[in-house]
Amino acid sequence: MSHQTQPNLFSYATSELSQDAFICWLAAWADPIFGGFELHQIAREFLLSLIHKHKTNYTLEKIQTVTVLRQVEKLDILIEINKDNSYEKLAILIEDKTHTDHHSGQLGRYYDNAKKDYTVEQIIPIYFKTGYQSKFDVGQYKTYLRKEFLELLQVGKSTIKNAIYCDFLSHLENMEYAVNQYSNTSLSDWSDNDWRGFFMQIYNSREQFYTIGEDDRANWNYVANPAGGFFGFWWYFKPLQNELYTPYLQLENNSLCFKIEVNDETKRSMAREKAFQKLMAAAIQLNSIRVERPKRMGNGRYMTVMRWDGDYRQKRNGLLDFQETLENLKKAQEVLDKTFPQ
Question: Which pTM value belongs to this model?
Answer without folding.
Answer: 0.84
